Amino acid sequence: MLTERFQFTGSEGHQLAAALDLPEREPIAYALLAHCFTCGKDVLAARRIAVTLAAKGIAVLRFDFTGLGSSEGDFANSTFSSNVADLVRAADHLRETRQAPAILIGHSLGGAAILAAASQIPDAKAVVTIAAPSDPAHVTGLFADRIEDIRKKGESEVSLAGRPFRIKREFLDDIAEHGLMEHVARLHKALLVMHAPTDDTVGIDNATRIFVTAKHPKSFVSLAGADHLLTNKNDAAYVADVIAAWATRYLAPAAPEQDAVTDEGPRQVVVRETRNSKLQQIISTGPHRLLADEPVSVGGEDTGPGPYDFLLASLGACTSMTMRMYADRKSLPLERITVTLKHQKIHAEDCAECETKIGMLDQIDRVIAMEGALDAEQRQKLMEIADKCPVHRTLTSEIRIVTKAAD
Hints:
GMP Synthetase, Chain A, domain 3, three-stranded antiparallel sheet, Rossmann fold, alpha/beta, 11 helices, 31% helix, single chain
């Protein structure tokens, strides 16, 4: 599982910190996950659900709402409406950069926000709520003793989960205006309601109201024994397992993978910073995902091959493939090819065959081992073929690299 960390612009213009958990291969679907009130994208429940879904082939985008976690802005200026708008912006970002989310998942107040945002995310086919209130105003019960103060002074500091937060009158006014059940009645998407009967933060009656109001197709799964925040790792994993199994019924079947030989033209390679460490990159090409990094000695964390490692790998793979195709075509008894490569800088004056005579130049040492009952003439011919591999020709010919800024 790979995690890309990046920022996108929220509805109020702030940069919101996001994490996209990706499967090892091309995702079967993308999901958007909204966390609980005052939580962040890295809260245990959200992270565990996302990681488990990614392991099952579903990519998950989670992000910090305004003023939470690593996102910009002041939490006190956020409202339920702004959270809903940020969810729509997150879905837009996925649509523009990857693929629109087919699954919407919301935990606690995030579940209410997902229900309110669903109509504005037309690509979504399935919606999941986990311990969600049927009325966003339910959250005010967490600071009921301060509501009069907030109304009178315009704002007040409240303690939530042991942390101080400023709540403004605008938040109360906004949340009181949302008739969530109207959104549920007009959902027109498959709905899965998950709730613990013993949830003492958001009672099970909230799940009942959401389920009864929703039209079919709808499903309910009891999270017996789970607490509101799904602090038990097994509960979060169970939630993800059920979502993955349930959602596939409503997703479009995956298109069969095309044979690489029949693809039209070269595939695009996209390299993007993960922001998990200083230099780590994620490389995407077709259904494949690879990590790139640098050794610790040069400032990286050695979580993947370095740029020159990939260059050598490209030449080595192309060399071996080209030799294999020739050997098979000529019915040569070549059993296995092993190509070992090394890159180094050498003084130009030490290279008698090189045109450059001043300064340093790049040298790639390539050692090719061939197994099989080959005679000397066959081995010599295969060594000649090695130099005809396309990557070898590219590296030894004039190369033009055109660089421009993205629109």
